[in-house]
Design goal:
Radius of gyration: 16 Å
Strand order of the largest sheet: 5-6-7-8-9-10
Structural class: mainly beta
Oligomer: single chain
Distance between the termini: 27 Å
Strand content: over 45%
């Protein structure tokens, strides 16, 4: 559980040891439980990496919150995948999974409630990795699978 007692904002995350089984955000006087269908793909959640982040969206007109944590049994190119659960306008909005697909690229997959996951954007780092560093690939040496 992560939170601030002063503003009564908290996150509750639970795992059965295999997958994420519960994610609840208490924020702005409401309790938001993420539907089970949004959690079933989050295997080997690393609960100790959870963060609750806030920002202003839509030209500072909408206050947003998201829960972020890493998950997965093995890293791809030196990083575990990340999941973000986004909240604004009084409700849960969507889930985005970010998977590192090479030394300099990441792929995002978005899932809206009740819809299938879809590939959204690819993020590319323009600067080169430091000289002498080798890519750290998953245990089987293959690129990241498509979630």
């Amino acid at each position: 559980k992560v939170g601030n007692l002063n503003d009564k904002t908290s996150v509750r995350l639970e795992s059965d040891g295999v997958r994420l089984t519960k994610a609840v955000l208490a924020w702005q006087g409401k309790t938001h439980e993420i539907p089970d269908a949004e959690l079933k793909d989050i295997i080997a959640p690393q609960l100790d990496t959870a963060d609750l982040l806030f920002y202003w969206g839509d030209n500072y007109s909408v206050r947003c919150a998201y829960i972020e944590l890493r998950f997965g049994a093995k890293p791809f190119y030196g990083e575990f995948s990340k999941v973000h659960f986004l909240f604004h306008s009084g409700k849960y909005q969507d889930r985005t999974i970010t998977v590192k697909t090479s030394d300099t690229t990441w792929q995002d997959f978005q899932k809206l409630p009740g819809e299938d996951m879809r590939k959204t954007e690819t993020i590319t780092q323009l600067s080169s990795p430091k000289a002498g560093t080798e890519p750290s690939v998953g245990g089987d040496g293959k690129p990241a699978p498509q979630p």
